[in-house]
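Record type: monomer structure entry
Structure origin: computed from sequence
Chain ID: A
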Amino acid sequence: YNQLNVNCVIACDAETLRNATKIILPGVGSFDFAMSSLNKSGMRKVLDDLVLTKNTPILGICVGMQMLANSSEEGSLDGLGYVDGSVKKFNREQLTDYPLPHMGWNVVEQSGQDHLFTNISNLERFYFLHSYYFDCAEELQKIASAAYGVNFTCGVKNKNVYGIQFH
């Protein structure tokens, strides 16, 4: 993880997380598995304090982005609720010519000039692997979208909270 010459620490406990000045929340697997793992880790309270009280920047990636929502159709647990919205499953009936999961490179359209995309041209391609998408409740919190049979939000922002569906 030091290929970019960036100082970083992998936080496995609340005490290590407490000192974070920026946070990347990756996600692997299902929504409930990821939320359950976070809740059991003892880091949830510290994470909430850092993000909601201290305004520490956080970037959720893939399932990490989905965890930022209030809820997900993939599970029954509550999400973090940092960005108002819910995670929905792609409708197979609308995607008859598109296999699920959505896997591969896809063009991402930026919704404006957000600093997350500094030095990244609009309509660049990124890698996706997912069957669920973030249904953002606030139009102004959508910062990127993609098309896979239907248009879907693949980037969200709420103050210091960012999420991207792609890798």
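Annotation 1: The chain has a mean pLDDT of 95.
Annotation 2: The longest strand covers residues 102-110.
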